[in-house]
Amino acid sequence: MRLRATAGIVAATGVLFSAPTAALAADGSEPGFSKVAGACAELTDQGAGWAVLRNDCPWKIKGSVVLSSGDTPACAQIAPQGTNIVTWEGDEAAEYAIDCPAPAAARPAR
Q1: Contacts (Cβ under 8 Å, ≥6 apart) of 32
Q2: 88-102: per-residue pLDDT in tens?
Q3: Which end of the chain is less enclosed by CB atoms within 10 A, N or C?
């Protein structure tokens, strides 16, 4: 009997802790996190032909967005914990922010 009670508590605890997290991730409302794991750029606002990106990292990055067509506008430099605007022709919506790859010379050695 004791084993069953313990298993039930563990299962119930898992549901309590995982359900809210899943709900946040499913509706995309989890603030402060990009959709791409490990990414610094976050889409914070947008309109027809523009988007505001925030750099969540303590170093300078270049970021852009992926548009509803799959196209990616030119990258914009973003200061540490700063913001910048990315622009494009047309009225497509920005789907999400991306970090632009750094040139090989600027990448940290492994």
Answers
A1: 42, 56
A2: 999 999 999 999 986
A3: C
Sheet holding 83-87, edge to edge: 41-47, 50-55, 83-87
Any idea which residue has 């750029």 for tokens? 41
- Answer whether 0.70 is exceeded by the pTM: no
Domain ranges of the chain: 36-102
The architecture of the domain spanning 36-102 is: Sandwich (2.60)
3-state secondary structure the chain: CHHHHHHHHHHHHHHHHHHHHHHHHHHCCCCCCCCCCCCCEEEEEEECCEEEEEECCCCCEEEEEEECCCCCCCCEEECCCCEEEEECCCCCCEEEEEECCCCHHHCCCC
Residue with tokens 């523009």: 50
Q: Which residue has the tokens 């910048």?
A: 84
The residue among 79, 69, 8 whose CA lies nearest residue 41 is: 79
